[in-house]
Amino acid sequence: MLDFSKSKLFISARSPFARRVRVCFDEHGINYEEVVLDVFKANPEFEKINPLARVPAVQLKSGSVIIDSNSILDAFYRSHQKSELLAHSEREIVLNAQWSGIAVGLYEQAIQYYLETLRPVEKRDLEIMSECEGNVRRTMAEFERFIKGRAFITGSHLSQSDIDMVVAIDYLRLRCPEDWLAATQETGRYGAAIGIRPSFVRTKPPPPQ
Ligand SMILES: N[C@@H](CCC(=O)N[C@@H](CS)C(=O)NCC(=O)O)C(=O)O
Question: pLDDT (tens digit, 9 = 90+) per residue, 152-170?
């Protein structure tokens, strides 16, 4: 059993990968410290913790370090096998795995798009940007159909896949054009209901700089 209390979680204020772990820790009442980094700047001290210089990374009070949101969550849930956020049936396990995978893919698409927008207009790869747009619109249309009439992905209770999808919805709103989510009212209703939880309110990404 790994002990996550009194751990240090290295994050950046807007990272969706970090936020899925932050919300998970908050939902489980973990007492931990957040170390906020600017990942667009060199962080020599952090590179000693994670040579890849990526957030999230967690340093347990034992000194052990786990990097990558999937690895952190995997280790966390192995140590919290009675968590109410865990899937109870085969159907729930499949739904959770499916939508958590999709959520992480959405983070990647939004980041790829955002990084292009940081380049001077003439250097942007329009093919990549349009591919991201197509992938996000198609995926969100699929989620809109799926979530209609449901409060949670499993139908009955909050799971890590809900955390991951609501983090994705907020991150798309932060980094991508507004109209990509224009036709997703059911998604909006679902995100708003879960987004009022204190764990989401506390970790809400600040507006873009
Ligand atoms: N697969 C990793 C992705 C983490 C990631 O890409 N983090 C970004 C912030 S959103 C980062 O630290 N980027 C800085 C860099 O790659 O130098 C995870 O799930 O934790």
Answer: 999 889 999 999 999 999 9
Locate the ligand 1 atom nearest the alpha carbon of residue 68 and give its number: 20
Do 35 and 123 have their domain in common?
no
Quote the CA–CA distance of 101 and 95 in Å, as a whole number: 10
Distance 43 CA to ligand 1 centre (A): 14
Distance CA 16, CA 91 (A): 26
Residues of the domain holding 134:
90-203
Whether residue 100 is found in the same domain as residue 181: yes
Query: Residue 1's pLDDT is what?
Result: 87
Assess contact for 39 and 31: CB atoms under 8 A: no
Whether residue 155 sits in one domain with residue 120:
yes
| CA separation for the pair 155, 87 (Å, rounded) | 11
Q: Which residue has the tokens 């955002």?
A: 114
Tell me, in angstroms, the distance from the centre of ligand 1 to residue 130's CA. 22
CA dist 140 and 10 (Å) reads 29
Dihedral angle sign, alpha carbons of residues 143, 146, 152, 157? negative
Amino acid (1-letter code) at residue 64: S
Helix (H) or strand (E) holding 33: strand 33-36
Amino acid identity for residue 37 in this structure: L
